[in-house]
Amino acid sequence: MSRWSVLGGGVAGLCVATLLTEQGETPEVILSDETPASHWAGGMLAPFCEGESAPEQVVELGQRAAEWWSQRVDGVAQQGTLVVAAPRDGAELTRFARMTREHQWRDPALLEPELAGRFARGLFFPGEAHLNPRDALQQLRATLEARGVPFHTGKPRGTLIDCRAIHAAARQPDLRAVRGEMLILQCDELHFSRPIRLLHPRFPCYLVPRADGHFMLGATMVESDDASAISARAMMELLSAAWTIHPALAEARIVESGTGRRPAYSHNVPEVRYRDGVFSLNGMYRHGFLLAPAMAQQLMQRLSQEVTHAN
Ligand SMILES: Cc1cc2nc3c(=O)[nH]c(=O)nc-3n(C[C@H](O)[C@H](O)[C@H](O)COP(=O)(O)OP(=O)(O)OC[C@H]3O[C@@H](n4cnc5c(N)ncnc54)[C@H](O)[C@@H]3O)c2cc1C
């Protein structure tokens, strides 16, 4: 019988299960019948850019993410992040530079030749990375299954580790949802090799390259528990911002759209908790791929403390 039951097969649950197996445990992963977990993420591992709005703790913990993922899945692109702004929004770029670190001022066209003539200057964050979140989770799951970890929708049999994200809100009332709308575009004309973030006073956006001419375009940040389809307004604003990055995107095909609910605590930083015999890892907010590895490690320490305490 599995000693640990991980509830939820999103990035938090799979990182926890992965670390458990690396410690010689064979947890079970309990899935829900809903749409695939962590499905809408951009897959950016961008601790320094996130430092613009996130606390230093996020920047610190996030710096381990690229290495953690590279050691466990294929396809982690260590190409950095490029941040640009339209000439009229140059002040935004200067402000972003002041709020962040580990960047260099660069001519965007030297990094992404297809941006030639579009932006006079850009901020390059060479230490950042990105991955395809769906591929990465599939790979983690395949590795777990190869190690004998059962995935099922039945009753949990071990000590619970709750990674149900927003679905745990009934148990954790301080958890809220932040709606994020996104698109997948296909555009064979562009070949960007790194995420491009466009700063804008009202409609910032980012474009994350995927394989086969696909790009993830995201994302809105709306304080709402509404998981319904992308709004017309969000789609118009995201597409208009994408067009500012490159006019070729006007001819892109919209191959997918989606809405995710980011699980967040009031300070927007994830937490490991333990209450009434149940462990939890939650509040990943907009940093599930960035922070789940480090937070899962914190959970491992908490498990061993509680187990030692109980003996
Ligand atoms: C548009 C968008 C873009 C994003 N981009 C990035 C990014 O670039 N980089 C980054 O690091 N993060 C990004 N994020 C954030 C990231 O996607 C989230 O932080 C992350 O997906 C949260 O993962 P999780 O495992 O906590 O929750 P989830 O992925 O929601 O997984 C929880 C799972 O638990 C399941 N569940 C519910 N009830 C039960 C039950 N009773 N038993 C078992 N399972 C249950 C749910 O169905 C769900 O599948 C983005 C988010 C959005 C919405």
Automatic annotation (TrEMBL):
Highest taxon of source: Bacteria
EC number: 1.4.3.3
Cofactors that this protein relies on: FAD
Source organism: Pantoea latae
Pfam families, alphabetized: DAO
Name of this chain's protein: D-amino-acid oxidase
InterPro entries, A to Z: DAO, FAD-dep_OxRdtase, FAD/NAD-bd_sf
GO aspect biological process, one term: D-amino acid metabolic process
One example GO MF annotation: D-amino-acid oxidase activity
Entry's family note: Belongs to the DAMOX/DASOX family.
All residue ranges annotated as the FAD dependent oxidoreductase domain in the record: 6-301
Swiss-Prot/TrEMBL keywords: FAD, Flavoprotein, Oxidoreductase
Record field: catalytic activity: a D-alpha-amino acid + O2 + H2O = a 2-oxocarboxylate + H2O2 + NH4(+)
